[in-house]
Structure formats: structure tokens, C-alpha cells
Write a structure and sequence with these properties.
The chain has 276 residues and is α+β, with helices and mostly antiparallel strands. Helix content is 36%, strand content 25%. Strand 3, helix 2 and strand 4 form a beta-alpha-beta unit. The chain starts with a strand and ends with a helix.
Length: 276
């Protein structure tokens, strides 16, 4: 099936997943599980046994089953090991797994979520909510509006392009507001982004989205009207090409741990966003 020029079957787990995992260690107890679920407002938490390199899960359903089996009558229930409640070890799917296979895997096992791995380690989670977001949002027509490249060392913008043909007069005020919000968000969460945790990959406000793509010592930032896999891929390619276009300067700055304050030519990467 194809839609808007994108092959649905070519979408992979790594493009759909929530790119971080809320995880507890194998020695966690019941109290730890409850605190994490409440703090993060989630319905399940993963458990990692680093020695065996195995992963387990404790969901709200698992907790109810445990209590129903007599767990509520146990002494000092808060200190009961998560091992008495968790399910697993669970099977992980690689980040390169086609999304149609992920959906089939979840449907056959009646899973509400699946753990995604990269090089054998947990890298993200796909839930039924992520599937719905992918189905309802990621393949909507999306247009780039502002493209920025930032030097990670100084958090300064080293290139900018406005796709004026994609900006309508009646949304300029909203776009400007989001642009300001993007800069504030970057300044607040930039450390997390640069550490490569993957927690900061995008944020949205109604019909506006901001996508982030770190590469080497720069970060590509794209403000667009909708989130889409197509634009994520284009931003990834553009960020890599921008770095390669200025590789001598950027590599030199990176090797010497220097900040860049020069405005660099962004034109070589613009055609990436205009190609259909």
C-alpha cells in the first residue's frame, strides 16, 4: 500500500517508536514499580536483567493479577521483588523491523506495547498509541517551513532557510510563536538532546511540529505544518549533507572543541525538501 508517495511497508520500527525506554533494574521492588508508573503516568514499566541481557515487563494488568492471587495479603508488600510480578523474558524487535510486521507481532500476541532493540539493547517502545499516531498523523501531507542548523557547542544557529512558499499569511503569527517556543525548548532541553539519549526528537503544537536531528557536532531543526516520516527522513539526509558540505570546518571545530559562530551556506540541502 502506498500513500503520498511513501511505501507504508518501508516504514520501520525505529521511525515509529518512542525513542526511549523507562526501565527499572531486576532488583526493583513493588514500591519502585508503583512510583515509576505514577510519576511517568504510564501503564507499564520494563525491567532489565543486565547480567542475562533479558527484559521483562510489569503492567497494570500484571499488578492486578498479582494482587488477586493473594499478593495484597502479603506482609510488607512494598518490598516484594518485581520478579514476582513481571512477565518475560520478552522478545525484542529490531529497529529495522518493518512496521507491518510489528503490527502483526503485537496483534498475534495481543500486546499493547513492544520493546524495540538496537544492537541487542533496548532503544525504544512501540505502543498501540504509537501505531495510531503513525496511522493518523505521520502520513498526512506535510510541508517544511523553517530549516535551521545549530552548532551544538555554543547552541548558536549557523544556517537558516525559510520556505516562504509554504507559509500562509493567516498562520504566520502562530508559526512565529512556535518558532519562539522551539528556541526556548532547545535552550531548556539541549543537554538531553546532545547527550544522544534520543528523548528529544520532536514536539508538536496543534498543527505545527518541530523535528530535531543531531549529527556529529551539529543539530538539524525543522519546523513544519505536520509531523511525517517523509520529513523526518529528509531532515536526516539534509543534516548529514549539510555536515558533509562544510565538513572541513565542522570537523576542525569538533576536533578542537571549538564553537562555530559563522553563518554557513544552507543552499546545497534545500533541494532535498523540494523533491517529491
Amino acid at each position: 500500500m502506498k500513500e503520498l508517495g511513501l511505501d507504508v511497508q518501508s516504514a520501520i520500527a525505529g521511525e515509529i517508536m518512542t525513542p526511549y525506554v523507562i526501565m527499572l533494574e531486576i532488583n526493583a521492588n513493588f514500591e519502585d514499580v508503583i512510583k515509576v508508573l505514577k510519576k511517568n503516568q504510564i501503564s507499564a514499566v520494563f525491567i532489565c536483567d543486565e547480567i542475562k541481557n533479558e527484559y521483562y515487563v510489569v503492567s497494570e494488568t500484571d499488578i492486578i493479577d498479582f494482587l488477586d492471587r493473594g499478593g495484597m495479603y502479603k506482609e510488607n508488600i512494598a518490598k516484594i521483588q518485581a520478579a514476582e510480578i513481571m512477565n518475560g523474558p520478552i522478545q525484542l524487535l529490531d529497529v529495522e523491523t518493518p512496521i507491518d510486521k510489528v503490527i502483526r507481532f503485537m496483534a498475534e500476541r495481543k500486546y499493547k506495547r513492544v520493546l524495540i532493540s538496537k544492537k541487542g539493547k533496548a532503544a525504544g517502545v512501540i505502543s498501540t498509541r504509537d501505531i495510531m499516531k503513525w496511522n493518523n498523523t505521520y502520513f498526512k501531507p506535510a510541508k517544511p517551513q523553517i530549516l535551521l542548523f545549530m552548532d551544538n557547542k555554543a547552541s548558536t544557529f549557523i544556517a537558516r532557510h525559510i520556505f516562504e512558499e509554504n507559509i500562509e499569511d493567516d498562520i504566520k503569527r502562530e508559526l512565529i510563536d512556535l518558532y519562539g517556543g522551539a528556541l526556548n525548548t532547545i535552550s531548556i532541553m539541549f543537554d538531553e538532546l546532545i547527550k544522544g539519549s534520543g528523548k528529544i526528537s520532536q514536539f508538536s503544537k496543534e498543527r505545527r511540529s518541530v523535528l530535531f536531528e543531531p549529527y556529529q557536532n551539529i543539530t538539524g531543526i525543522l519546523i513544519c505544518d505536520y509531523n511525517s516520516i517523509d520529513l523526518k527522513r529528509k531532515l536526516r539526509n539534509a543534516t548529514k549533507k549539510f555536515f558533509e558540505s562544510h565538513s572541513k570546518l565542522l570537523k576542525q571545530a569538533n576536533s578542537k572543541n571549538l564553537a562555530i559562530y559563522t553563518c554557513l551556506d544552507i543552499n546545497p540541502v534545500i533541494p532535498i525538501f523540494k523533491n517529491t
